[in-house]
């Protein structure tokens, strides 16, 4: 799975604050993720995170579609 810094991950389950989107701050054997709802940061093993990912949004792909 191609996950890079700055990507937004849409997860299957919601965070207790109600948000499903997480920002990728660090990649490797573990991911550091920041909840886009409340700002809480977690470290999670790559294999656990990849099981719960529904969609990966790359920031540069969204800016290209806007024509900017």
Question: The biggest beta sheet, please?
Answer: 5 strands, antiparallel
Helical percent range? 10-25%
Structure annotation, total helices: 2
Distance between the termini: 27 Å
How would you write the strand order of the largest sheet? 4-3-2-1-5
> Which blocks of ≥5 consecutive residues have pLDDT under 50?
none
Global structural class = alpha+beta
Order of helical and strand elements: EEEEHEH
Residues in β-strands, percent:
35-45%
Overall 3D shape: globular
Cα gyration radius (Å): 12 Å
Number of strands: 5
Domains, number: 1
The average pLDDT score comes to 90
Describe this structure in words.
- This protein is α+β, with helices and mostly antiparallel strands and 68 residues long.
- It has one domain (8-59).
- Helix content is 21%, strand content 38%.
- It is built from two helices and five strands, in the order E-E-E-E-H-E-H.
- It has helices at residues 46-52, 59-65, and strands at 8-11, 21-26, 30-35, 41-45, 53-57.
- A five-stranded antiparallel sheet has the order 4-3-2-1-5.
How do the strands and helices of this protein lay out in sequence?
Layout: E1 8-11, E2 21-26, E3 30-35, E4 41-45, H1 46-52, E5 53-57, H2 59-65
Antiparallel strand pairs: 1-2, 1-5, 2-3, 3-4
